C-alpha cells in the first residue's frame, strides 16, 4: 500500500500520505479496492471509507462537489453518486417536483450512475415529512414515497424555485484576470467600476466592468489575508481576517492616507464580512469563525465611524440552532460550521442585511434579531466559492466567486436579491 500511495500521490505531503494510509486501514479496505480507487482518482488524498453490504464506499470532494464511489471486494466499480444542482435535473423531473412538491424544501439532488444506468435522486422536506424521489435519465419518475421517509443526511436548504432556479441565469458575467483568481471582496463604484480585493495582497484593484480590465492598483498595506472591502464616498475600508480594518482615505488619489483600526475580537473569530451601514454611519463585521463566549451563536459587530472604535459586544447574535441553518452542504466538524459568513452587505432599498456563506453555498437575509428571514442555495457550477457581495443602487446583485487553481474568478450580476 505504501508503495502505491507514493507512486500515485507523488505531489502529496508526507503527512497527507500517512493520513490517507490510516484512512485505508480504518475500514480494512481490500488491496484491490485501494488500487482501483487510486487509478480512478489519483489526486484525491482525503476520503471517508465505509463498509457496505455490497462492498466498500468512499466519500470525497471533487471539483468542490461531494461524490461517493462503491466497489465490490475485488475492486470492481459498482456505483458513482455525484452531488449536482437543480439545473442538472432533466426538465421533466424538475417540472414534476415543482408541480407536486412546490411547498417542500430541497435537501439534496444527486446523479447516480449504477451498472450503466443513470438516475437522479431528489430529496425534499416539509415540516417533518421527508420525501425521496427517483427519476430516470429522461426525467420519468421511477419511484417515490409521499409518506415520511427518513433521510439520513440533508445537505442543502432553500426554496424550490418557480420556473428557473434562483440565481441560475445571471444578467452578465465577467471572467476576471489571473490577479483576481482569489477575489475575496467587491464594492461597486460609480462609472461602472468595481473595487476588488483578493486575499493575499494589500492592494485595491479597480476593475472596469465595461472594458473588462484592471485599470488601477492601489496599495494600502503589505501581504495579508484580506477578506472584504466597503466604500463610503472617497474612503475605502478593507477587512483583514484577524478583524483589523484598514481605512484608506481618498483611495482614488495618488497619495491615499491609510489608518489601521486594531481588532478587539477573539483570534478564533476569523472575520470575513464587512458592510457600510450608511444610515448609522458605521461598519458591520461578520465572523466566519466563533467566540467561545457567545456559546451557540455567532456575532455581527460594529466599528463606529465617528469614534473609530470597535465594539466588543456584538450588535446581533445569530443563533446557530435555528432550523434554517441545520441543512448545509458538506460534513461539519462542529456546530459552528453550519454558518460561515464570507460576505456581508446592506440592501440599498430595504436596509436588510444580506449574508453570503461560501462554505455552505448559500445567500441569506438576516433579521435584526439574528434569525434568518430568507435563504437560497447558490449554484456551485456558476459560483465555485462565492466570497464577495455588492448591490447596485436599484438593488441589482453582484456576486464575486473565487476561481479554481486553473480557473478564473468571476463576477456575476443579477436583477434583484431575495
TrEMBL record:
Signal peptide: none
Domain of life the protein comes from: Bacteria
PROSITE patterns listed in its UniProt record: PROKAR_LIPOPROTEIN
Residue ranges of every copy of the Putative beta-lactamase-inhibitor-like PepSY-like domain listed in the record: 71-142
Intracellular or extracellular location(s): Cell membrane
SUPFAM superfamilies tied to this protein: BT0923-like, YWTD domain
Gene3D superfamilies: 3.10.450.360, TolB, C-terminal domain (2.120.10.30)
Main location: membrane
Protein family according to the UniProt entry: Belongs to the YjiK family.
Protein name listed in UniProt: SdiA-regulated domain-containing protein
Organism: Pontibacter rugosus
